[in-house]
Amino acid sequence: MRVHDEAVVDRRLRELSGRLHGPTRLKADMLTETRHALQDAAEAYRQRGLPRAEAERRAVAEFGSDAQLVPGFQAELTAGALRGLALRTLVVAVVMLAAGDLTWQGSSWSGGPPPPRSYLLLSMAQERIWGVVAALALAALLVSRWGSPGLARPVRLLGFGLTGGLLTGVVAGGALFGWSVGLWDAALTWPPMIIGVVLASTAWFALARAARCWVLADRRLRPAA
Fold first, then answer.
1. Angle CA 145–75–166, to nearest 5
2. 168: part of which helix (H) or strand (E)?
3. pLDDT score of 150 more than 60
4. Which of 5-9, 93-97, 198-202 is predicted least confidently?
5. Residue 96: predicted pLDDT
6. How far separated are the first and last CA of the chain, in Å rounded?
7. In contact, 140 and 82? CB cutoff 8 Å
8. If one looks up domain 69-224 in CATH, what number appears?
9. Which of 95, 145, 150, 184 is the most exposed place for a label (fewest CB within 10 A)?
10. 59 φ, ψ to 5°?
């Protein structure tokens, strides 16, 4: 009895799942809630005396078509993806701003001649970039959590600004690291530098995944909207 019900529901859920993209946990929770709603609706129709097949068809049909369901579901997933990206970015930005200079303190070359002025300018620019990225992440986190549907365009702009800021940070950070190694050969064997590179690489990998999730979710949202 119940197997047939679940087969019909599963088919509808697979259709919805194929049209949605976003954070795995949030998407799973949404589909679980949808499953329960469909099963409850089908059970209610059967209690009214409808045949099982007709009860299932009505439950699925009256729950909504793709055109009715997908835009709202995808909008929620897109907002969730942006929240995840913003939260991760905010944490990484705060750590970078607070601990960036620690990788150099006590190094064998710190008491030598200062680096070129252009190097110092790049280092200062990187700090400014992270400051801007942190501000964008905080704004995106707040607006995507409590913003109204009318703020969809500003939220999208914040998302693209945040993604662009992260890409700029990657370029600036990579250039600064390469320049540092060129100036001081010992940087490659300096333990704080090694630890910093490992942690930064891990952080960038997590941010890249979160950014990709948001970009793909936003791409799904636009055709659906």
1. 65
2. helix 152-183
3. no
4. 5-9
5. 82
6. 38
7. yes
8. 1.20.120
9. 150
10. -60, -45
Ramachandran bin of 151, using left for φ above 0, alpha for ψ from -120 to 50, beta for the remaining angles:
alpha
Residue for token digits 């499953």? 35
Domain ranges of the chain: 2-64, 69-224
Q: How far is CA 93 from the centre of its chain?
A: 15
* pLDDT band per the 50, 70, 90 thresholds, residue 3: very low
Helical pair 66-99 and 117-146, crossing angle rounded to 10 deg: 140
- What's the token pair of residue 122? 């790049």
Q: What is the pLDDT of residue 1?
A: 41
pLDDT at 152 over 80: no
Contacts of 13 (CB under 8 A, 6+ apart): 31, 34, 35, 38
184 three-state secondary structure: coil
pTM, two decimal places: 0.83
